[in-house]
Design brief:
By secondary structure, the chain is an alpha/beta fold. It is 43% helix and 17% strand. It contains 13 helices and nine strands. The protein has helices at 2-18, 31-44, 57-70, 83-91, 164-177, 180-187, 196-204, 215-223, 253-264, 266-276, 294-299, 306-311, 313-324; strands at residues 21-27, 48-54, 77-79, 118-130, 155-158, 191-193, 210-214, 228-231, 238-246. Helix 2 links the parallel strand 1 (21-27) and strand 2. The chain starts with a helix and ends with a helix.
Length: 326
């Protein structure tokens, strides 16, 4: 073990001395989790330095659009939550067509048929509840139930203008129940905050007994001892395959491909489970403790019309803002 550690140290020192190849990742993966994954990747690939720009999907979309307009895209790799966004980038000719070796182990519904993006993780919008305020028996069981006056002024949700996962959730719920669903939530005094981490923190702190957030964020807080747990809603978990892709403008294609292959590999998927409580997209990697595998989650997930979300993004954000924020 000591000999192995010395070899790794020498390799890292050599990479620093001779100059590691740098690649830039734009991602919405939370900073603490992404830092741990980046460190694991660089330890396995000492000749590559991974730089990370981390923000909400909305902020990254704005940044990337401005860079594309200026003809100066800084990112080599993109890994955010908004699945339909990749279709837009593909149509704009901004993504490289790639065929990573590790993608062969992914289910077909986790791969773009044309080879422009691949799911690197499965993130799921669920109902989180404070375990000091509620129990699994008394917590709400469905999205629809949250419009009940029982939950008046007790529910907190993320803003789709910041969170790509929230875009998917709002679009799916609006498609299933109509925009009246959000009118009912507003009448029930549901509160909007910036992102999913904000929601989870407020539920864990007891500011709200329930909230809409991503499963892995709540699960990570739970593992660390916070009084928060999750419910997979009976009317459908909002399951979002979070894709990873390489920008066509990248001058570091080989190094970028190594990162994509790492994320899709057994080691990369295990790292996500262990470091971020994320649901793996490979069936040969076990999910976090007490968590269903991806196939089971998808089997009871709410249907998401990704084409509607891609084409109706402005409408989704505008309607949500008009109803929930004004």
């Amino acid at each position: 073990m000591r000999k192995y550690a010395i070899v790794i140290l020498l390799l890292i020192c050599s990479a620093v001395f001779f100059g590691a190849e740098k690649i830039m990742l734009y991602t919405s993966v939370p900073t603490e989790i992404m830092t741990a994954i980046a460190d694991a990747f660089m330890a396995a690939n000492p000749g590559i330095e991974l730089e990370v720009f981390r923000s909400g999907t909305g902020t990254i979309q704005t940044k990337l659009a401005a860079e594309a307009q200026a003809g100066n895209i800084q990112a080599d790799v993109l890994w955010v939550a908004e699945f339909s966004y990749y279709e837009t980038l593909k149509k704009e000719g901004l993504l490289a067509q790639i065929f990573p070796e590790e993608a062969a182990s992914l289910p077909e519904n986790f791969k773009d048929p044309e080879g422009y993006y691949y799911a690197g993780r499965l993130i799921n919008m669920v109902i989180a509840y404070n375990t000091k305020a509620l129990t699994p028996e008394t917590a709400p069981k469905s999205w629809k139930e949250l419009t009940d006056e029982k939950w008046y002024d007790n529910y907190v949700v993320p803003n789709p203008e910041y969170s790509g996962a929230a875009v998917a959730a709002v679009g799916a719920l609006a498609k299933k129940y109509g925009w009246k669903y959000f009118e009912d939530l507003r009448e029930n005094e549901a509160v909007v905050v910036r992102g999913n981490s904000d929601v989870a923190q407020k539920v864990a702190a007891g500011e709200f007994p329930i909230g809409m957030t991503l499963d892995y964020i709540a699960r990570d807080l739970n593992v660390k001892g916070s009084p928060i747990d999750i419910i997979y809603p009976t009317d459908g978990t909002i399951a979002i395959p979070s894709p990873i892709a390489i920008l066509k403008s990248s001058q570091k294609m080989e190094a970028a491909m190594k990162f994509v292959n790492y994320i899709l590999s057994i080691d990369g998927q295990k790292a996500q489970v262990e470091l971020g409580s994320l649901v793996p997209v490979r069936s040969d990697v076990n999910p976090p403790a007490n968590t269903p595998p991806a196939g089971e989650i998808l089997g009871q997930a709410m249907e998401i019309d990704w084409k509607y979300i891609e084409e109706g993004l402005a409408e989704i954000n505008t309607n949500f803002s008009d109803i929930m924020l004004f």
